[in-house]
Design brief:
Strands 6, 7, 8, 9, 10, 11, 12 and 13 form an eight-stranded parallel beta sheet that branches. Strands 1-3-4-5-2 form a five-stranded mixed beta sheet. It contains seven helices and 13 strands. Strand 4 and strand 5 form a beta hairpin. Helices cover 28% and strands 26% of the residues. The protein is of the alpha/beta class and 246 residues long. The chain folds into two domains: 67 residues, Ribosomal Protein L25, Chain P; 154 residues, SPOUT methyltransferase, trefoil knot domain (Alpha/beta knot), CATH 3.40.1280.
Length: 246
């Protein structure tokens, strides 16, 4: 008996469109996305692609016409709504280019709802190319079949972040001087994970963080982790216990 093929095919190219999508809509795709579809993937009129907008979900679409530097696409079927995202913020001190790009990718893949870069006293990188980081998030979401993207905020100083800390959100911070095992500090509800720079938090910063009633210092095990590894490990633990991996 012949198996019924999956529809739509999982191999269709996926692109993020930063505007609301709707049934029957015809839109023009140009620039780098058009080059990818026509120059790299060699698609032509009649071929199908998948689009998502971080608002309404994912859409099956068909290429109607191809011009020299653009193409027209019609949305034909709403495949699925925007996925639900666990209420987890990632608060991470900026690190060197290349490694911070990796953090952007993994934050998107792992399902973080918001990424807030945090400037601490020992932060070496104080200027970020947010457009580049968002592009890495989008590319990861396109490749991993996600329909939601993390919110990416402008960097904020740690003092300002803590001054306005919401009363209903747990603050889990990776303390290089030790704390309770992280798996024991995770509970249901809104949460944030705070990861410091390569040099760690200063004693004054550590005292300031611990002064927040919702804060708890945690340990990520017996080995010293680089900042990007600590981020991935902490988010993975949270998703496994309180997020949507259960």
């Amino acid at each position: 008996m012949t198996a019924t093929p999956a529809w739509p095919p999982a191999s269709l190219p996926r692109l993020f469109i930063d505007s609301p999508l709707s049934d029957g809509q015809v839109l023009t795709i140009d620039g780098g996305q058009a080059h990818y579809l026509t120059g790299v993937m060699r698609l032509k009129a009649g071929d199908r692609i998948m689009l998502f907008d971080d608002r309404s979900g994912e859409w099956l679409s068909q290429i109607e016409s191809v011009a020299k530097r653009s193409l027209a696409v019609r949305l034909t079927h709403h495949i699925r709504p925007r996925e639900a995202v666990p209420d987890l913020w990632l608060l991470a001190a900026p690190i060197k280019k290349g490694r911070i790009d990796w953090v952007a990718e993994k934050a998107s893949e792992l399902g973080v709802a918001r990424w807030q870069p945090v400037i601490t006293q020992r932060t070496i990188v104080d200027r970020l190319n947010l457009d580049r980081l968002r592009a890495h998030m989008i590319e990861a979401a396109e490749q991993c079949e996600r329909t939601a993207l993390p919110v990416l905020d402008e960097p904020v100083k740690l003092t300002a972040l803590l001054r306005d800390w919401p009363a209903d959100r747990a603050l889990i911070f990776a303390d290089e001087e030790g704390g309770v095992p992280m798996i024991d500090a995770i509970a249901p509800g809104p949460a944030a994970i705070l990861i410091g720079p390569e040099g760690g938090f200063t004693p004054d910063e550590r005292a300031m963080i611990r002064g927040i009633a919702q804060a708890v210092g945690v340990s990520l095990g017996p080995r010293i982790l680089r900042a990007d590894t600590a981020m991935a490990a902490a988010v993975t633990l949270w998703m496994a216990k309180a997020g949507d991996w259960r």
